[in-house]
Amino acid sequence: MDYLALQNIYAKRFPLLEKVACKIKDDLKVKVKKCLRIDNISARAKSIERFTIKAKRVNEDGSLKYDDPINQIQDQIGVKIVTFYLSDVDEIEKIIKDYYTPIEHKKVAPDNIKEFGYEGKHLILFIEDWHIGNGVDEKDIPNYFELQIKTLFQHAWAECEHDLGYKSDKPLNKEDKRNLAFTAAQAWGADKIFNEVFIKIMRNEKGLQ
Amino acid sequence: MFKRIFSFLVPVGKNIKEDIDIYGSEVPLEGNLYLTLNEKIVKNINKECDIPISFIPENGKQKNEVRNILVEFLKTEAIDVGKLLAKRLCGFTSKISGNGLLFLIITNENKYKNLIISRFPVESGLSTNIEKSKLNIEYLENIFMKNSNYYKATIYSGESYDSDFWEGLAVDKQINRKKRELADYWIKDFLKSQFRITSKTGTSFLATSLKESITKCKDVNSKNKLLSVAILAENLNGKAISVNSFCNKYSLPDNLKDIITKSLPTPEIAEIKFEFNLDEFKSILAYTTIYLDNEAVLSAPSFAFHDVWEMENDQNDKVRFSTYGQIVNEKIKSRI
Question: What's the pTM value of the predicted model, to 2 decimals?
Answer without folding.
Answer: 0.86
